[in-house]
Amino acid sequence: MRSLLHALILGLLGAGIVHIAVLFLVPEFSERDAWSRLAMASDLYKMTRLDAEAGGAPVVKSVDPMFYAAACRFNLADGLVRIRAPGDVPFWSASVYDRSGHNIYSFNDHNANSEKLDAVVLTPAQMIDVRRDLPEDLQGAIFVEVPIEEGIFVVRAFVPDDSWKPIVSRFLEQSACELQDY
Q: DSSP of the chain, one letter per residue?
């Protein structure tokens, strides 16, 4: 009886471990991840609204209703990527994710040199080249050095009340994700 109970406990413990491992691996094998959904919605280097305010269903369903968001996919093998957004909003934050959806880097308007979003995403090798001869138009940009080639840049902007909705929408719609040759 004791050995049967021991075998039953070991079997349940093993099944629990396998179940947890499968749950952690689901995002790795999912074909409906953020990268795939963005790829269906737009091309590389094109800002795409993630929230439902842009019309239609949201690209990512877990977006906070107090924030509007936009994202662009990029490939640093083509060159460095510059993200800019004009205008003033109450608060914005930006994040860089790898293709699997892991957050690599985050910053917000309090880290920026001005309230405007101006960031350059590049690899460590590209950063070495840029530091040798920094172009004048990149002087005020935030440099985001990442150890990945493909990724997603996400911009979120806070909407404190309904009067800010058009301003925040314009901020995201005027944002640009541009491939820069260097």
A: -HHHHHHHHHHHHHHHHHHHHHHHHHHHH-SSSHHHHHHHH--TT--EE-SGGGSSS-SSTT--TTEEEEEEEEETTS-EEEEEE-S--S-EEEEEEETTS-EEEEEETTTSSSSSEEEEEE-HHHHHHHHHS--GGGTTPEEEE-S-SEEEEEEEEE--SGGGHHHHHHHHHT-EEEEE--
